[in-house]
Write a structure and sequence with these properties.
The protein is α/β, with parallel strands linked by helices and 269 residues long. It has two domains: 132 residues, Periplasmic binding protein-like II (D-Maltodextrin-Binding Protein, domain 2); 114 residues, 3-Layer(aba) Sandwich (D-Maltodextrin-Binding Protein, domain 2), CATH 3.40.190.10. 35% of the residues lie in helices and 25% in strands. The strands form two sheets. Strands 2-1-3-11-4-12 form a six-stranded mixed β-sheet, with helices on both faces. Helix 1 runs antiparallel to helix 7 and helix 4 crosses helix 8.
């Protein structure tokens, strides 16, 4: 079977179309994978399933999807995305300001917008915190993207939402430097307020399937880890993965997500 790389939906159709062939060509040249094909897959869960089944050689996964799937013992963790100077970020539950919601306990009986079940910041950690505290929303929706969650809160369709954020370590505790709402142009004139943060969350990961050899994994990881040093490669890393570079991923960084995903699965059964 020819080697393959699986991409999930989050970059968006336009970005995938723009960078899919350049990524294929880059890995064919620098990863010594002359027959590699890049496949766009409908969901990250499907990417993980195909990897575990040996139907994909390599793949890109959100940290939560990796944490959920690695229990099969069939994924090989290779690299994680680094954005700016950090290989992690945080999640945040937020409301429109002014709203009479100050703490997580106030979300009982409220409407909450999530990104997707694969989203660490946009669902997993916040939903886990609510369930562990016995807080039950009246209504929940999965909007499919961070921007859609922000818009749902801005419009009043949802009372609160969950998205990603970056915390300034030099500022006062939990001072948010950027978040899903600061990167959503359509809500530039709307005021939001964070009520809880979660993390740190490891960056998205690059994985290999169980059928890969050590040599194949080493060549692929080396090419991706050096991608940012090549002008064309740097454009792919930023444009497709939203990453400045890729670095070695350490298994212990995913423990928080392992616990949260396992607990949520138990509650959903």
């Amino acid at each position: 079977m020819a080697p393959s790389f699986g991409l999930g939906p989050s970059p968006g159709v336009d970005r995938i179309d723009r960078h899919r062939l350049p990524l294929r060509d880059f890995l064919r040249e620098h990863g010594r994978l002359p027959d590699l094909e890049v496949a766009a897959v409908e969901t990250f869960s499907e990417v993980a399933e195909r990897l575990a089944a040996g139907k994909l050689t390599f793949g890109w996964l959100p940290a939560a999807t990796f944490a959920r799937t690695e229990r099969t013992g069939k994924l090989r963790l290779l690299l994680q995305a680094v954005r700016g100077d950090s290989n992690s970020y945080h999640g945040v539950v937020f409301v429109r300001d002014p709203a009479p919601i100050r703490i997580l306990a106030d979300l009982g009986g409220r409407r909450i917008a999530w990104v997707s079940r694969d989203s660490s910041a946009g669902y997993v950690l916040a939903a886990h915190a609510l369930s562990e505290s016995g807080i039950r929303p009246a209504w929940e929706s999965f909007e499919g993207s961070h921007a859609a969650v922000v818009k749902a809160v801005a419009s009043g369709e949802a009372d609160a939402g969950a998205t990603f954020c970056s915390i300034d370590p030099r500022g006062r505790p939990n001072r948010i430097r950027s978040a899903g709402w600061t990167e959503t142009v359509e809500v530039a004139n709307v005021a939001f307020r964070p009520i809880a943060t979660f993390g740190p969350i490891p960056g998205d990961v690059l994985c290999a399937g169980p059928q890969t050899s050590y040599g194949e994994r080493a060549l692929f990881a080396s090419a991706m880890a050096r991608m940012h040093l090549d002008p064309a490669g740097a454009g792919i890393a930023r444009g497709l993965f939203g990453a400045d570079r890729f670095d070695i991923a350490l298994p212990h960084q995913f423990q928080l997500l392992r616990q949260a995903t396992e607990r949520l699965e138990q509650l959903e059964q």
